[in-house]
Amino acid sequence: MTVQSLPDARSHEARLDRLAEIAVRVGLGLAPGQELVITAPIEGVGLARLVTEHAYRAGASLVTTLFEDEESTLLRYRHAPDESFDKVNAWLYEGMAAAYRSGAARLAIRGSNPALLAEQDPAKVARANRAMARAYRPALDLITQYTINWSIVPFASPAWARAMFPDEPEGVAVARLWDAIFASARVDASDPVAAWEAHNRELQTRAGLLNAKAYAALRFRGPGTDLTVGLSDGHEWLGGSTRAQNGLVCNPNIPTEEVFTTPHKDRVDGHVSSTKPLSYQGTLIQDIRVRFEGGRIVEAQARTGEAVLRKVLETDEGAARLGEVALVPFSSPISKSGLLFYNTLFDENAASHIALGQAYASCIRGGTDMSADELAGRGANTSLIHIDWMIGSDQVDVDGITGEGSSEPVMRGGEWV
Amino acid sequence: MTVQSLPDARSHEARLDRLAEIAVRVGLGLAPGQELVITAPIEGVGLARLVTEHAYRAGASLVTTLFEDEESTLLRYRHAPDESFDKVNAWLYEGMAAAYRSGAARLAIRGSNPALLAEQDPAKVARANRAMARAYRPALDLITQYTINWSIVPFASPAWARAMFPDEPEGVAVARLWDAIFASARVDASDPVAAWEAHNRELQTRAGLLNAKAYAALRFRGPGTDLTVGLSDGHEWLGGSTRAQNGLVCNPNIPTEEVFTTPHKDRVDGHVSSTKPLSYQGTLIQDIRVRFEGGRIVEAQARTGEAVLRKVLETDEGAARLGEVALVPFSSPISKSGLLFYNTLFDENAASHIALGQAYASCIRGGTDMSADELAGRGANTSLIHIDWMIGSDQVDVDGITGEGSSEPVMRGGEWV
């Protein structure tokens, strides 16, 4: 008899491997024979390879990873001629859209440096983002409309970890960020797939309760905030896993703690203050204060990144209106970590939030089969952008306003009532 | 007065930077405002970044690098289902073709592991290559027809260096390979751009002498070789830099020591033996012996990789016919290094060679404006593949056969007469 030592399930390599397996089985719900397109930071090649292996083991027909190099992005800002910033590699975005149209699933491995472009000219950043958003639109539509199964999973890049733990040595910072990622992704559960199934049921129960209420609006009140967010007609609360139009069930965000729906683009009024910094394309936008009238932002300020925020709001007509509202209790595991991630994938799951820009058709009953005009008629917003920012905290209360105008508590002190 | 120490032009970093500059200025002849698409092994990110910087400094509008990961390729062979090997990410090849059609230049940074796929099933390798070649065809046509300026530059990957210097520690092997690359790319010349201009003039003079001769055929004779290669009607010898159809002058291969033209697809007869191993898509094919009749290979053997060779010849009708013949003196600098590179970019510049498959329209006078039928009428071959292999050595003589059938010496003992 030989006794083989088992790999330590808690070793970094083993946990990374489980994260890759969760990405393929829970995040994507990849089908045998399906193609997979991965985008990943070049430092994340190790995780990309583990995902590639699990995808092939799950029967993937072909896995292609498009690696992104932030250093090359910076070289552009440092050395490219001014005309460069209206130019985009449309051929690559068209290629990705073609892949999705032919049935490929999509996984984004994300670990951006939150401050990558902080010192670059905001006008150039805005021009580059606008050109990119236009080129990306057809592919993004296939994603937001869940034509295909897709997911986003985090990667602890050194630059991201340094931004979160500026006083720690880089190795310690990266290890702490990985710990937070593994915990939020339920990697250490004895059966991660079962843990995700239970978590999805919980989020779907919460969404079901809100759907039964069918509120006309939500009202957020807290320090610097008194905002009424009208909900779109026939809105549907969603949370956890989603069945894509190709029939496959995916968890589009790992981690996820939110339930969310589509606000009415013309029925948002009042003022609201952000409760966490927003990291947008490499710029940190802190202490946002905006005022809405008839759904549109009419005043906007921020302590840092205000120029970038203003450029964002000018992207198009829909950029100054809401496309999403989401509720997350203050006691969510990510919130409890006490960490500020400077990364929407995490921070939006630590606090209730709203998103500027494009709405999800899937958050309107029957929405994925509706025309653009029908969706707009229900109040769904349209924009090249979709940017989440956090407005919840333990000091923010949320009320539901019924169709008859009466009010009932939904959250108190950041917790479900 | 302050005295600043100059960077050592011979340091590795400085030489790598000069290679990047040569790639942009000599290899591509990149125009201000032009887009650039780079393909690079993921280990070559450092060189890719230097090229990116030089490209932006030269006025590039946008640089996109598509990184290739050989580990992920191996994961496919190890874990993907059998159906995978007929599947290709056509959307990515179509995207590259779209980039070239819209005017982008193309740089390939190459440092493949010559033995990557040596232990994989040759049938799967052949299926994957055939699917890839079909998808790549539109992009490859834009390259081989010089619709755009393009170039290939080498990168000393650890796997390639290990294959060349199996008895050296990896660090030494990589350093020796870099030395050979830098020497062949004229990086250490006091003015590398001027050195390349002189080298290009020399190759173009040699091509001019052969064009003045306008031989009907070449005859190669040596150990295991007596091969008559008929040349296409109106063939043109080329070497060194090329003016692409967009008017930009590029050096498509760095290094380059060859003059080359298009044989007649139906007029190749006799037998020929390879004089160096051929590294084809990760398989080493050694000691090739083939016999031609009426332009077509009718017998083929190899000491290693024969199964892969046979699959290659079955790719399509043109895969068993010649698309290129090239002359390189035995005294060329790469040949004199005495090294075997297991890499066509180098080994083809150390010895006269022939290529199976697709012909270059640019090697026929007026060819880039001709229809496919006109080109075929001149004898230009068509195929999904283009694979160079070496048939020259210091023991091989080359004669030129005139239209009247008389013979005159072109090379003796591997040197120009």
Automatic annotation (TrEMBL), chains A, B:
Pfam families on file: Peptidase_M29
Cofactors, names only: Co(2+); Mg(2+); Zn(2+)
InterPro entries named in the record: M29_Exopeptidase, M29_N-terminal, Peptidase_M29
GO MF entries: aminopeptidase activity; metal ion binding; metallopeptidase activity
Gene Ontology biological process: proteolysis
Secretion signal, residue range per the UniProt entry: none
Keywords for this protein: Aminopeptidase, Hydrolase, Metal-binding, Metalloprotease, Protease
Domain of life of the native organism: Bacteria
Family in the record: Belongs to the peptidase M29 family.
Protein name: Aminopeptidase
Organism: Salinarimonas soli
